[in-house]
Design goal:
- The protein is an alpha/beta fold.
- Helix 11 links the parallel strand 8 and strand 9.
- Helix content is about 50%, strand content about 10%.
- It has a 9-stranded parallel beta sheet.
Length: about 500
């Protein structure tokens, strides 16, 4: 094995020393209820030793509805923080200097709007926005494939992504403009090889769109990042991460002719697999998460979130979130795995599995190319069908007892006791609606309307949308109002 860590094609890691000189970023994905409640959780996690924030938004925020929209009823603040204005973003990070933390925002259809809020909140703190560091997920294709929180049809949605990339190139040079996500593909039921293939197929589509929009590949590829799941098959997961890096390096060099070595390095965040956690015997989830996190570390992750043991029951409590973070800290400080750049390199089983996953993933990418590319494959339902078939086969194996899930189809305890879960105050939604009414009463309605009209004009005539989104956000336009303005120009996507 002649290749060393830090050398093309980066099978063994993107840095020569890996964790010996710098640990992975320890994130804990969090956000629920109001901006103030989530702010308290972030400060708690920072005090416990996380090294990066990771923001979860509620479903209305993800799909461009304000808390008073009829379709938002019953969902406000439930699976993430309710955030609809610049004021909410300022409250979310009150007392947290945004130029001193790295922030990951899991947001897609409304990514450009939420990033605008974040930048404006940082400016209000006096931060140099050119030094802001973090990631906005901004990966809309996997929403059509696996998750469903889309707003616009694919092609105008892709325009929003390339506009954000072009704007951030000069305005946010340290910001990762996209986190191309295999996590949700895997959680929907794909195999490890499909997760790699479909994620990289999406990357090909985004890179192609950027080039078609007039961007040089080396001007934006170094700011792309990835997001993968860490599942239960320990050796397969380690191999999966190594295969993804190698395949991506060759794609960028050989297909897109990238010249900057940073363009060919696949940097990724990993999250342990929520779909593997069980409501039965939730303490056992601590073991699952520990092994999954170890696979991510041995596979060379740059950033990691460890799920809490109670996530099959509800949002994590403070105690379970702390325990999940301590899992990462033990891996980093007590196990010694960070002292070797690629501890599994040279293992016959790992090397063979790495080659196998790369070959299978490349075959899928070739098939998608033959269909006309990722957008065409999505429109034909090919990728969705492949994932659905894999998910069905996996569930059938569990039901036939061919695949063992401890506590579910084997080794049941007989106990029905359910631990206390995090609860969302039912009055939250009413308070968020009142807060929104207060905002609308205090701002200049004429100013908002003028900026929304300018945004609509930019959407129609092809200008970059980010300056207009920023101006509307500064005038206190809401997520819902900005999204509705773009809906009126772009239309809404309806799955066939």
């Amino acid at each position: 094995m002649s290749e060393s860590p830090g050398e093309f094609p980066y099978t063994r890691g993107i840095h020569r020393e890996m964790y010996r000189t710098r640990r992975w970023t320890m994130r804990q994905y969090a956000g629920f209820g109001s901006a103030e409640e989530s702010n308290r959780r972030y400060k708690f996690l920072l005090a416990q030793g996380i090294t990066g924030l990771s923001v979860a938004f509620d479903l209305p925020t993800q799909i461009g509805y304000d808390p008073d929209h009829p379709l938002a009823q019953g969902e406000v603040g439930r699976v993430g923080v309710s955030l609809c204005s610049l004021d909410d973003m300022a409250a979310l990070f009150d007392g947290i200097r945004l130029d001193q933390v790295t922030t990951s925002m899991t947001i897609n259809a409304t990514a450009a709007i939420l990033l605008a809020f974040y930048v404006l909140a940082a400016r209000a703190q006096g931060a140099d926005t050119r030094k802001l560091s973090g990631t906005v997920q901004n990966d809309i294709l996997k929403e059509y494939i696996a998750r469903g929180t889309y707003i616009f049809p694919p092609r105008p949605a892709m325009r929003l992504i390339t506009d954000l990339m072009a704007w951030a190139r000069s305005e946010l040079p340290e910001w990762n403009t996209m986190s191309i996500s295999g996590y949700h593909i895997r959680e929907a039921g794909s195999t490890a090889a499909q997760e790699v293939a479909f994620t990289l197929a999406n990357a090909i589509a985004y890179i192609s769109a950027g080039i078609e929009a007039g961007l040089d590949v080396d001007s934006f590829a170094p700011r792309l990042s990835f997001f993968f799941a860490a599942h239960n098959d320990f050796l397969e997961e380690i191999a999966k991460f190594r295969a993804a890096r190698r395949l991506y390096a060759h794609l960028l060099r050989d297909r897109f002719h990238a010249r900057n070595p940073r363009s060919t390095t696949l940097r990724f965040h990993a999250q342990t697999a929520g779909s593997t956690l069980t409501a039965q015997q939730p303490d056992v989830n601590v073991v699952r998460v520990s092994l999954q996190a170890m696979a991510a570390v041995l596979g060379g992750a740059q950033s990691l979130h460890t799920n809490s043991k109670d996530e099959a029951l509800g949002l994590p409590t403070e105690d379970s979130a702390r325990l999940a973070l301590r899992t990462q800290q033990i891996l980093a400080e007590e196990t010694g795995v960070a002292n070797v750049a690629d501890p599994c390199g040279g293992s016959e089983a790992i090397e063979r599995k790495t080659d196998e996953i790369e070959r299978q993933a490349r075959e899928y990418i070739d098939r998608i190319d033959s269909l006309g590319g990722t957008l065409a494959a999505i429109e034909r339902g090919y990728i969705q069908a492949e994932i659905q078939n894999s998910a069905y086969q996996y569930q059938q194996q569990i039901e036939r007892g061919e695949r063992i899930v401890v506590g579910v189809n084997r080794f049941q305890s007989g106990s029905t006791e359910i631990p206390e879960a995090q609860r969302i105050d039912p009055a939250l939604e009413r308070r968020q609606v009142e807060r929104l009414r207060t905002l609308r009463a205090s701002r200049s309605a004429a100013d908002v309307e003028a900026h929304l009209a300018s945004l609509a004009a930019a959407a129609r005539d092809g200008r970059n949308l980010m300056p207009e989104i920023l101006a509307a956000a500064q005038a206190r336009a809401t997520v819902g109002e900005i999204s509705t303005t773009l809906r009126q120009v772009f239309g809404e996507y309806r799955e066939a």
